[in-house]
Design goal:
Blueprint lengths: L1 H7 L8 H32 L2 H17 L1 H10 L2 H22 L2 H6 L2 H33 L5 H50 L9 H4 L3 H14 L1 H16 L6 H8 L3 H25 L6 H21 L3 H29 L5 H30 L1 H22 L1 H4 L4
Amino acid sequence: MANQVNRDSPLAAIRIVEFKNLMLGRFVFIMALRMMSTLVGWWIYELAGDPFAIGLIGLSEVVPAVSMALYAGHVIDLSEKRKLILKGVFFYFCCASVLLFLSTGLVKEHLSNHWIAICIYAVIFCSGITRSFTGPTFTVLLAYIVPRQNLQNATTWSQGTWLTASVTGHAMGGFLIAAVGNSGTLITICSLIIFAFIILTQLKPQKALAQTAEKRTWDSVKEGLRFVFRTKEVLGAMSLDLFAVLFGGAVAMVPVYAKDILKVGPQGFGWLNAASDIGSIFVVVLLTIAPLQKKQGRKLFFAVAGFGACIIIFALSKWFLLSFTALMFAGMLDGVSVVVRGTILQLKTPLELRGRVMSVNSMFINSSNELGQFESGIAAKFMGVAPSVVFGGCMTLLTVIITWFKAPSLRKLKY
């Protein structure tokens, strides 16, 4: 009975000291990275004066992150997890330090804006390589330090930590740029990364399993891919996320809606941009207090279908309040989807395969976010903005229908 009470408690995972250290370190680290991404976007636009230059930042990071993901999964399963995370955080500190150097007056005296921008892209490319190893390792560690009966609670806390850190980092980044400039912001970012490193040193070493270490690299990579494609629940959950974000990327068009359709200016743009995150944080807090108890697979389908419907409503809306509400509910439903998908991955993946499977998952997520922005831009060019967003929402609904029939085991899944 005591075990059941502990399992059902919203604080079940957070009472584990090791998990608490992981979440605190991750919060500070993600906040620093979001501040860095906010700064780099602003800085590149200052240097180049071209919106396309901002798009190249995402491309610079996602190409190495996705291309290295499969090998990174093999390395994660082969490595001691604590050491790998600390190495990743250290390399991010090196990247931030190089950016700090590039922001100094000495560099401005000797390099043109064009060459400074190229150097920034090179740093972001290196950070993308590091991201392919560090991101999945944080997720893999959950299963090593949290008992199986608490994994749903831990996944919810983990997602809430990530979202809160992301929103806080973006907001603080903008404030710091205005208050202390690029160099002052980068000093703060470096300090936060050092703080995160210190917290993460408190984690206990988590060694690789013996059977993983004996495999050759390509055989190990293929084993992870085979598991994903043979496990319908895992493949279905990843596919839903991939295509929902790929076709439902309405956020990419928010600046156009704010300026030309809703005509609400920069302040309205800020609220629309934050709407999805506000909804996601709200639902993650709710699911922490009252986790989903049954028919989670079916609820995942309903959440993604609702997300697609909200995107269609946003596309057709000419009223700011309705548009904001649609995006907020889309964020709430996306939060449900992320928590359920994350829990499915944690529960269905064997311990010795977690690094490879989480890396495949990161490929799905990274590619869907970046390609979703690209798809939104291309569709808007050929179809018009509103029709392109309606098309994306309809394609999301079609994806749900196809997956509903193709992955019945996911539809019937409960945990």
